[in-house]
């Protein structure tokens, strides 16, 4: 007789106060302290994040193909992984979540266990640059590519495109920069006002920006389009933008 499985305990979440006091300057890292506050951090820092996640489910529902693989590269705590999971209505699909942060993967496992979908999810703690990709119908890079060294981005996208089946897609969400210095200044100011409206102080905004500016390297929308097409995708469209945060859909022709 099988034993009833215990209900998983959700991981502790905390309000993001990591940059609320003066601290020694250092590069931003996805360590255990960030993992613990990450849901609050990303909700209060990324305009439109709470819209993008459910739309990933909608897009996955449209493009996931029977017998294919689906990948969430840089899955962090699994928000987009779970969105993809609920968008896949064929249990013949395989879903993979990949992140190089052990702290993120550990917490992601809890969220996967709490979810009510029966579709299996394979989590891998590894660098997405080393992840084997094949037979893909939907791949998501949700605010992940911006943390990959710029000189390695083209090769990663080429591998994704090569692994994508005809009719498959890549969902690419990124913070971008603008060609016009005036627009860059305006969009940055609006983003900072968004953070202030969500309770971040000027000190928190300044210290977070200093910590992340050498780690998160944004590019223009034109640069993203050109590289996606060069990688092997046939069509690239912008489906969402809020200030300097965007999400694109790169499609492989049937």
TrEMBL record:
Its EC number is 2.1.3.-. GO terms for molecular function: carboxyl- or carbamoyltransferase activity; methyltransferase activity; S-adenosyl-L-methionine binding. The keyword Kinase does not apply. Pfam families: Methyltransf_25. Residues 72-168 form the Methyltransferase domain. Homodimer. This is Carboxy-S-adenosyl-L-methionine synthase. It comes from Marinobacter pelagius. The gene is cmoA.
């Amino acid at each position: 007789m099988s034993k009833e499985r215990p209900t998983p305990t959700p991981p502790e979440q905390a309000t993001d106060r990591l940059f609320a006091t003066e601290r020694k300057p250092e590069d931003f890292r996805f360590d255990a302290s960030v993992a613990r506050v990450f849901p609050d951090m990303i909700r209060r820092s990324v305009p439109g994040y709470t819209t993008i996640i459910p739309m990933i489910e909608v897009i996955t529902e449209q493009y996931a193909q029977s017998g294919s693989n689906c990948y969430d590269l840089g899955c962090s705590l699994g928000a987009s992984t779970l969105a993809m999971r609920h968008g896949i209505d064929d249990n013949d699909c395989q879903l993979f979540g990949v992140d190089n942060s052990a702290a993120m993967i550990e917490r992601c496992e809890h969220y996967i266990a709490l979810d009510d979908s029966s579709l299996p999810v394979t989590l891998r703690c590894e660098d997405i640059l080393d992840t084997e990709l094949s037979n893909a119908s939907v791949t998501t890079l949700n605010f992940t590519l911006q943390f990959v060294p710029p000189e390695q981005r083209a090769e990663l996208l080429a591998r994704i495109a090569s692994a994508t089946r005809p009719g498959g897609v890549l969902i690419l969400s990124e913070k971008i920069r603008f060609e016009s210095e005036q627009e860059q200044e305006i969009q940055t100011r609006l983003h900072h006002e968004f953070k202030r409206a969500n309770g971040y102080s000027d000190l928190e905004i300044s210290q977070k920006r200093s910590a992340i500016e050498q780690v998160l390297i944004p590019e223009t929308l034109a640069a993203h389009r050109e590289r996606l097409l060069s990688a092997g995708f046939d069509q690239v469209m912008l489906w969402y933008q809020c200030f300097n945060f965007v999400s694109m859909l790169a499609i492989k022709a049937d």
